[in-house]
Design a protein that fits this description.
Elements lengths: L2 H12 L12 E12 L5 E8 L2 E5 L4 E12 L2 H8 L3 E7 L2 E7 L8 E9 L4 E8 L2 E4 L5 E7 L2 E7 L2 E7 L2 E7 L5 E8 L2 E5 L5 E9 L2 E4 L4 E7 L2 E6 L6 E9 L2 E5 L1
Parallel strand pairs: 2-6, 2-8, 3-7, 3-9, 8-10, 9-11, 10-12, 11-13, 12-14, 13-15, 14-20, 15-21, 16-20, 17-21
Antiparallel strand pairs: 1-4, 4-7, 5-6, 16-19, 18-19
């Protein structure tokens, strides 16, 4: 389970934001733009930013839409306006993957942010990465891979496998469905993890925290192979052909409960 924390460390090293306080950048401006793409032929949406939240939710439309918000601070309005275009929004489509990136300049102390609000047909797989910001995923049906360093992860009514990790922040996930051969894998360094599963699920699970408690609640059948306050493993529901739940936390409680 420790490999999830190693992945988070790698993301941290790859997406470093440097700051200094040589100037008083206390004036902020914000610019929003809309970009759209046909969803035909797109199987995966990948979004990354250094500073900013990422939201992805399902729509019945046939288009993928991104509301992109850039924010920049300056010493005054003129200075901020001169630098907001330093935030570059790059987009690529290749091999069925739409990639969106907010590229920040090396900071001289001013606050650069690039946030994304994505709406998409629900069948797209999501890969979302930010350093400073929350991640929210709603009503998707084909799974996701999510990483943030300083921020919370919230997942609502997801179907498919989910892999999520944060260093400083909580994870809250509601699975609408989790079938055999699908998995939930969560890692957090400093934050609690709450996972809601269908009450009739069949899943093999292991949940471990260094500092905190593990709680499994609301299911009619739970069979434990390990049942310690901070480490529980076993099976929820029937045995064999199950989904897999694996949660690893350094500091924080873990709760797995029936929805």
């Amino acid at each position: 389970m420790k490999h999830y924390l190693m992945i988070l460390l790698c993301v941290t090293l790859a997406l470093v934001v440097c700051t200094s306080e040589e100037e008083a950048y206390d004036y902020d401006i914000e610019r929003t733009e809309i970009r759209t793409w046909s969803a035909l032929g797109i199987n995966q949406i990948s979004v990354s930013t250094h500073n900013g939240a990422i939201t992805a939710s399902a729509t019945q439309d046939t288009m993928i839409t991104a509301e992109i918000t850039r924010r920049c601070s300056g010493t005054d309005s003129i200075d901020a306006e001169e630098h907001i275009d330093d935030i570059e929004i790059n987009e690529y489509i290749a091999f069925g993957e739409l990639t969106l990136e907010a590229e920040m300049p090396s900071s001289d102390g001013r606050n650069y942010q690039g946030a994304f609000d994505i709406t998409t047909p629900p069948s797209k797989y999501l890969k979302l990465i930010t350093v400073n910001g929350d991640i929210l995923v709603q009503d998707m049906i084909n799974g996701a891979w999510l990483r943030t360093i300083n921020g919370a992860i919230t997942i609502e009514d997801l179907r498919g496998s989910i892999n999520g990790g944060t260093v400083n922040g909580a994870i809250y996930c509601v699975m609408a469905e989790l079938t055999a051969n699908e998995s939930v894998n969560f890692g957090a360094t400093n934050g609690e993890v709450t996972l809601l599963l269908p009450s009739d699920i069949s899943a093999d699970f292991e949940a471990w925290t260094t500092s905190g408690d593990v709680t499994i609640t609301g299911f009619s059948v739970v069979t434990y192979t390990t049942n310690l306050p901070n480490h529980k493993a076993g099976t929820i529901g029937s045995v064999g052909g199950n989904a897999v739940v694996d949660i690893d936390v350094a500091i924080g409680n873990i709760t797995i409960q029936a929805n």
